[in-house]
User: Fold this.
Amino acid sequence: MAQRRFPRHLAMLAASLLAACAAGSGGLADRSGRLIPGGGPGASGGSVFGQYLVGRFAAEEQDTAAAAESLLAALRADPDQPELIQRAFMAALMDGRAEALRLARRLPDNLAAQLVLYGSDIVAQRWDRAEQRARALSRQGPVQALQPALIAWSLAGRGQTEAALAHLRPLAEQGRFRALNALHAALIADAANRPREAERFVRLALADQPEPTLRLALLAAGILQRAGRGGEALRLLDRIGQSHDELALAALEPARAVVLGQRAIATPADGVAEAYVALGAALRGQGLEEMAMLLARLALRLRPAFGPALFLLGDALAEAEQLPQALEALSRIPPEDPLFGPAQLRRAGLLDRLDRLPEAERLLAEAGQRLASLPQPLVRLGDILRRRSRFPEAAAAYDQAIARLESVRPHDWPLFYARGIARERSGDWPGAEADFQRALGLSPDQPYVLNYLAYTWADRGERLEEARQMLERAVALRPQDGNIVDSLGWVLFRMGDIAGAIQQLERAVELEPRSATINDHLGDAYWAAGRQNEARFQWSRALTMDPEPDEARRLREKLANGLPASALPAALRR
Assistant:
């Protein structure tokens, strides 16, 4: 499923929130700003400073548990140190600890602390205080996007639905964050049982995002269903479900029964959590994992079992290589949540990365049985097995996945491409060739399919002219991909066009200088051109680039004996 990228300016704005959330990058300092070599006032020896350094290092390494433990321990020893209060608060917040609320009260100028306190007011139904706190938030950074929704949910909590909608209406109709404000106006109207207004606002959100995110599509489908537009709601879910991406499971049975059958928002706290997750997901799409993690934590303080927040947190932790923590976050998504199915597939991928393959296979087998008509669990199993070079087993998993397709559609091309790779590496070239041809029939301009099929033809000395034409198309589509340029050079070599081959292969080496295969190919072309010293240099260079064992053996043989005549193009052999 295509995901719409969030406006670029939010990526720039995010930095200001993180800067406002934590203290500067200087060392531990006293109240006058002087660096303290052994800790703050009242510290005993160097223990506080040691814990502080450990905590800072752990925070930089995204080890939130160790950071929180060390910085909170340092703060207990020196409870009035401003630097420690700042950093301990952030560590506690990022690790989801209760201490964050207590420390937030001591940080009136910290933006994240004010969001924690705002959330506490919302949960306690202190609506006036929540509204005042939301209006007082700094208008820098992503709060520019969040602030209107936070104010509106404060008003809605007080029962002032019309005031909440009036606050969002102009922002939903124009402005940089139309989709976000329109969606929250729709959610507020939906929670107040005003289906026509909810429908109008959600249509504004959908109009601003022609390729809606998964979460927007799920929320919009529920609103349309309650507005009497059930057919349109189903079509929206069908658009998502037609993809074989793992997230499509959230739009299929039994998840769609939950999506259509109950409101996603029951309280203002739920609405605020939605706002945090929407912004966090958008910022994660810009590579701002730490910011996404912070917003996910803020959402979970309001909705502890909120599937989208746990999913976002799991993805952000995985990106930070905190794999056990990511696995734990995803395991907390309840079975009734629409994201439970996708989370199981993500968990399997994490188990594989942790070398817990039997657990991953067992999880996917269970998912495959539970979702007996759906291909996604078997696709994920095939992908895991293929990456581990268990090609025959991967091909068998793809066989089962393809058998579950009700009909083959253009977006199914990656499945045939993946099975083609597994079959080719298993020695089943006829089956692989048929799969690559099928993938191209479904989507003719996929450069990597063109490359794989044409390169294999060239390597086998088959259909060389057709392979050249295909690779010229692939290079036009991906001109900076050194592997595809290498394939074009290789087919020219096999056709006997040594000058053309050298031209392409030299460019491929410039694009992918650390590829053993590309350097090996360039060496072969130099040898065929009579440039033997240059050939041996390229082969020697390729040997330093961790080639496969068989490739390394061939390189050593060529260094010793030169390129055998049988490896030359047929025209040159004659």
Summary: Confidence is low (pLDDT under 50) at residues 1-20, 22-27, 29-46. Residues 125-331 form a domain with the Serine Threonine Protein Phosphatase 5, Tetratricopeptide repeat fold (CATH 1.25.40). The chain has 32 helices and no strands.
